[in-house]
Design goal:
Number of domains: 1
Strand content: 15-25%
Distance between the termini: 42 Å
Helix content: 25-40%
Number of strands: 7
Largest sheet: 7 strands, mixed
Order of helices and strands: EHEHEEHEEHEHHHH
Length: 230
Amino acid sequence: MRRIILASASPRRENLLRQLGLILEVFPSDIDEFIPEGEPPYEVAQRLAVDKVEDVAPRFKDALIIGADTIVVYEDRLMGKPANEEEAYEMVKTLQGKWHEVYTGVAMEDADTRRLAISHEVSRVKMRRLTYQEIRGYVASGEPMGKAGGYAAQGLGAILIERVEGCHYNVVGLPLFRVAYMLEGFGMNLLTGLGLEDVPGWENRKAILGSLDPRAKLGFRGWKGEEKRD
């Protein structure tokens, strides 16, 4: 029975994959996320994603390992995760009112054959203008810690984002359409279910998706598991 392993401690990535109906296990990697000066952003994101899956893959059999890493880039300056609140403040202060890029590298590896697939996605983000008090208030919420660029695209950080060009989920931390394409390369189709029959819990996907969809929980009129269109 094939297992899907997420080599990340990010609850955002775990939740995004579960929204697709995937039953997965979380096994965070333990790598040094070092960013050398001069390395192109997409190469940094891809390299770190590969490092994560290659760190975790040898510990499993009959499994597909998924890893990802997100970085923020402003005027060729790479922004990782802030080390403290002051660094988070400086990051948000720099980005407010301006456009920047968000890169996410994605890697998948078959734990048995060691076959590796690598890709990345980039989105442009415009952050709204913020006052000193607003930036301090956001940093005090604790949300910037552990987030590339010192902000999150969900939660409180969602109101910082004025516009996104490209994949929104990439800004959250995982470009889902890119993930779907890569899974197809390993014989797994999320829309048809082909190749996923042996993934633990896949047979319960319909119930899982229903429990995750907020419209189902809120009891929208006419809601029967499909979007009702006019």
